[in-house]
Design brief:
- The chain has a domain of about 70 residues: Ribosomal Protein L15, Chain: K, domain 2, CATH 3.100.10.10.
- About 15% of the residues lie in helices and about 15% in strands.
- It is built from 3 helices and 6 strands.
- A 3-stranded parallel sheet has the order 1-3-5. Strands 2-4-6 form a 3-stranded parallel sheet.
- About 10% of the residues are buried.
Length: about 150
């Protein structure tokens, strides 16, 4: 193979449109901008979200509640996901990451009570739902808040 023999994959190289280069191109004269008007002018156009003076959609729709930009959301794990651990194991965020049950755990872990637990585990998490803590204790394990 030589440098002179190289060519792009078929269909990958796209030749751009040459605006304003004669009427035979189909994009001559007004160059696809139509006749007159704000969008036809050099430097013309409106900002994103502008609706010609009409109240923009982003300001028309109701805004309720509160979105805390400083929130530190916990990762949720259900009880049934803990069945993969052997009896007597200590389960924490790092153990769940190692097993691939969690893909990330930036701020902490909350254990939820969906499913059943048959193994005696020591679970360390930032928070537990009431049903999850009850199921862990009922199976003979411990629910430790860290």
């Amino acid at each position: 193979m030589n440098l002179s023999e190289l060519s792009p994959a078929p269909g990958s190289a796209h030749v751009g449109k040459r605006k304003g280069r004669g009427h035979g191109t189909g994009n001559g004269k007004t160059a696809g901008r139509g006749h007159k008007g704000q969008k036809a002018r050099s430097g013309g156009g409106v900002r994103i979200g502008f609706e010609g003076g009409q109240m923009p959609l982003a300001r028309r729709i109701p805004k309720r509640g509160f979105n805390n930009i400083f929130a530190r959301p916990l990762e949720a794990v259900n009880i049934y996901a803990l069945e993969v651990f052997e009896d007597g194991a200590v389960v924490d965020a790092q153990a769940l990451l190692d097993k691939g049950i969690l893909s990330k755990c930036q701020y902490g872990l909350k254990v939820l009570g969906n499913g059943d637990l048959t193994k005696k585990l020591t679970v360390k998490a930032s928070a537990f739902s009431k049903s999850a803590a009850e199921k862990i204790v009922a199976a003979g394990g411990k629910a430790e808040v860290v």
